[in-house]
Design brief:
- By secondary structure, the chain is mainly alpha-helical.
- Helices cover 60% and strands 4% of the residues.
- A two-stranded antiparallel sheet has the order 1-2.
- Helix 1 packs across helix 3 and helix 5 runs antiparallel to helix 6.
- The protein is rod-shaped.
């Protein structure tokens, strides 16, 4: 019993070495049970690579969806234009600015209430990029 535990410890170390040498997780490594003596003799990464080439050490295949199907759409950081928080913050700033300006125009009687409601809806739909764009739409000179 004691000998078997000692052998398992040795093999566990070999498994870790094999995982490092072959670039996979230690749970993916499988030893051929009939050639355990040769595996115990392996002490370098090169020995492990040679045993892998001979088929004494094997790597379990990947399971699950990743193996079956590769993703078609790209989702790297370059594909995401801006974080939602940033876009929302931008929207809030521009909306408040335009609504404030529109309110001033209504107080000055440059915009009637019907036009006011229409412009408010357009501001909410982000039709106007900035204050100058809104002024241009209304035909107001600075």
């Amino acid at each position: 019993m004691r000998r078997q535990k000692n052998n398992m410890k040795e093999l566990r170390k070999r498994k870790v070495l094999a995982a490092k040498a072959l670039g996979v997780g230690k749970n993916k490594i499988v030893f051929d049970s009939s050639k355990l003596a040769e595996i115990k003799e392996a002490i370098t990464k090169q020995d492990i690579r040679d045993l892998y080439a001979e088929g004494i050490i094997m790597i379990k295949e990947a399971r699950g969806r990743k193996k079956k199907e590769k993703r078609n759409t790209r989702r790297g950081p370059g594909k995401i234009k801006m974080k939602v928080r940033d876009r929302k913050g931008e929207y809030v700033i521009i909306t408040r600015k335009l609504r404030g300006y529109l309110k001033e125009l209504k107080i000055q009687n440059k915009v009637d209430s019907e036009k006011f409601k229409e412009i408010r809806k357009k501001i909410r739909a982000r039709v106007f990029k900035n204050k100058a764009h809104l002024r241009e739409h209304l035909g107001i000179k600075t």
